[in-house]
Amino acid sequence: MKEKNYIYKSISGFITNYLEGDLIIWTVVFLLSIISILAVYSSTGTLAYKYQSGNTEYYMIKHLSIILMGIGLMYVAHLVKYTYYSRIAQITLYISVPMLFLTLLMGTNLNHASRWITVPGLGMTFQTSDFAKLALIMYVARMLSKNQENIKDLKEGFLPIMIPVLIVCGLILPANLSTSALLFATCLVLMFIGRVNIKYLSMLVGSGIVAFALFILIAPYFTQSSRIATWHHRIENFIHSDKTETAKSEDANYQAEQAKISIATGGIFGKAPGKSVQRNFLPHPYSDFIYAIIIEEYGFIGGIAVILLYLILLYRSIRIANKTSNTFGALLAVGCCFSLIFQAMINMGVAVNLLPVTGQALPLVSMGGTSVWFTSIAIGIILSVSKDINNVKTVPDGIA
User: Fold this and answer.
1) What is the pLDDT of residues 202-212, one digit of tens each?
2) Which contiguous run of DSSP H or E holds residue 167?
């Protein structure tokens, strides 16, 4: 008993002394990280035999190092006073726009899409949309908080926010429709919470639709035109499933069918960790469809547990936003959280065949590199806002 009490006091002492901010969010992060390591280790077996001569620990160790690096970035981000992210938002937005241009023109092309820049000398790929997504959310939160007094004014309050949103989302769109739409929706939610006139929001939605229509018309003259065919096939296959001859002949809905088999055979309690069968047939079981593998191995209970963890993260973030006295902090916490939760729900919706295939990763769970790191930074920012809630001195709105 004494040893158990000593261990408990040591852990609680470490948490109290070193981990500031919302402890429930920290707990959610650690639980999702454990689930991620177990699920990735199980789902990369086939990949290891194909590319690493059967070394099944290779991808687990690699992913573990990425997760630990992500937690390190989260820790650093939560130490930074959240008001500093207002200034950082300006710098990162100015950097992200040229980076997105560079990615479209010279990026590494995979599956007919230029989403990555390869870092010279390291051979490491960097997905610029992850950086741009976080930069735009911080920038929108900054502008909304600074312009609260004239937020109803079209020229001074709305256009300075609308233009960067259209530019960044437009640059992400050619290679990644789902990320562009997700970011656009997050910005709309932020602007709605930030008291932007509904008429202006409708204008922004209309502008987005017009821009998307123009892209569809112009895209066939450029190299990215093949993405339109991909989007069309995914939506058509989702609507018609395997009922059409086209879907049958091309195995176009193969991913969704394998995911449904994985989920159906999981039952209530699952097949147990490491016992998945569909990981050998399902494309990308360690990223896009990792939720299906979790349900197959841990059952309905495991699937619900993962959803609950994301809902707890959403609840705590909204609670933090309600408690903070600073408009920028509230909008920053809501923006970072909603972006992650939207992405998680889309990934899980695809896995259970409620949505067409999008290629969105499951935040903090799917195997990845920069996506895990930027997700960790976003959560670190939420924690940074949460640790200042109980401060006696409050910060005036829209500074920094």
Assistant:
1) 988 988 888 88
2) helix 159-172
